[in-house]
Amino acid sequence: MDRRKALQKTGLFAGATLMMPTMLSILQSCKEEKRLDWQPEFFTEDEAKTVSLLVDMILPHTDTPGALDVKSDIFMDKVIARTYDAEGQENMRSEIAAFNANCMDKYGAVFIDLDESDRIAVLKEAEANSGKFNPGVWGTAVGEQEPIGFYRGLKSMAIWAYFTSEEMGKNVLSYDPIPGNYEPCKPVSEVGNRWSL
Questions:
Q1: pTM for the complete prediction?
Q2: Cβ-contact 82, 117 below 8 angstroms
Q3: What is the largest CA-CA distance in the chain?
Q4: How many other C-beta atoms are found inside a 10 Å radius of the C-beta of residue 92?
Q5: To pair with 68 at 20 to 30 A between CA atoms, which of 43, 45, 130, 186?
Q6: Integer Cα distance of 45 and 148 in angstroms
Q7: Which helix (H) or strand (E) holds 117?
Q8: Residues 42/54, Cβ–Cβ less than 8 Å
Q9: What Rg value do the Cα atoms of the chain yield, rounded?
């Protein structure tokens, strides 16, 4: 091999080796960049990012789809845009703002800018301090319902959006739109998954 070509190749290899950490850090920063890949109808972009991150942490992707896989955040945005009255929409905006203000006061940044451990601490605190839903009979709460707060309301809506999605209803939960014969006293081991209908 020509010595000159060997030196050129060695120089190129050394340059590539030196540039590799820089390239990896650029790729990593792009990966962590918080982008919104859908157009919200109601939420502002920052509100949508906050809601998307919250539902992703509440219902993450595991061996089953996560909330973002079934687009729970997009569904919630459409529900709020199309079914909430002006007062309800304004209340949602002020609750998101108050949630972020609480994050800013306690951790120095809004929810989407916190690190993972601080986000988990925020959610644990929200879970502990949120009101609980009263038991219900046929969809009606028994007794006087205490205020549930932003986190519990958002979590409830995320779970509703998640379990009513087509992906969950047809591909994860058992699905039979026209049930067969009534079979009482069937062992749970034969039933399998919980049923969506």
A1: 0.67
A2: no
A3: 89
A4: 20
A5: 130
A6: 25
A7: helix 116-129
A8: no
A9: 24
